[in-house]
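Quick one: Flavohemoprotein from Oceanobacillus limi, structure tokens please.
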Amino acid sequence: MDSKTIEIIKSTVPVLEQHGEKITTVFYQQMFEAHPELLNIFNHANQKQGRQQKALASTVYAAAQYIDNLEAIVPVVTQIAHKHRSLGIKPEHYPIVGEHLLGAIKTVLGQAATDEILDAWEQAYNTIADVFISVEAQMYQDAKNQHGGWDGFKSFVVDRKVVESEVITSFYLKPEDKQMLPSFEAGQYISVKLEIEEEKFTHIRQYSLSDAAGKDYYRISVKRETGNETPDGIVSNYLHEKMNEGDTIQVSAPAGDFYLDTGKDTPLVLLSGGVGLTPMMSMLNTVVDLQPERPVTFIHATGNGRVHALRDEVKRVAEKGNVNVVFFYDSPTEEDRETQAFDIEGFVTKEWLRENVPHNDTSFYFCGPVPFMKSVNASLKSLGVTDKNIHFEFFGPMGSLE
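--- reply ---
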């Protein structure tokens, strides 16, 4: 892009900061009206909750802010590209997105969206789209060409279905064609695609793999979302209630840029809240297999024993390595107290972390509900943990921990 185009894009940064979410809300409305078939790809729940709109607004804002230094947003591009590849986003989708994004800018800004601004944004969008298409093309190629890999979605059979707690059930998935499975990094996820009889559109959801690589199955451990009025539970409830052993399900190859660095042997702290346990289970199993001497602190926070999944597995795996396990329950039952099912009543705090985990040259990985992650992130930063040693992942669209 020429300097004039870059100058125009950067001049729109304050406008995007103010109106970005409105623009992306209009964008999705108009795009889905014109192309309802795209609802077979996008997560309807994230749309209705506004999470996707916020995430896209943040991405557009960052693109404008760093339009003269796009290398600064490479980590964001990589993270989104992984999700796109897992969902099946293809090059032909980008012109549709571009058309409706420009249309939304014009709708929201009105006369302020001059031809000069729209032309500049069209150039900028096409440049950024080309970057995504190129990165994703390589990811599709890598997923297909790896040993045991495949393109798109593949049929898997539910080999085992195991109830882990009142709210979480594990599904052991084996390829229907009985071919070997490609490896994956501890912390990555797969997408599952369901065609539910009473639903108009296909539903795709991404679930972290909750066991180590190298097995003849992929395991996902799914929380059943109930008790609220959001549509989050469409897929999780279907899996819990309708998906049985012997049934088939469509699965994409593993993806994701949140994974354990096994090239390090420095202390490791794995922190999880609720179903954020799932990628940590993969990391725990992996580090014990590959680095049994590496010092690991495994911290899990949940409500009580009724909703605590995979407790016995954590204890069993920990015995094989150099692992210290700590369970936090914020609302333990009498049975939990009698059986000593947990270690600490309450929440993970900065003070507890300061006194009980190493900080210098320690790698921290965490996942869970957004309030949990915000608290952990703030605690670690206040304790002087550097950004390079802080790793986390949102379930769903990107958000902010600030």
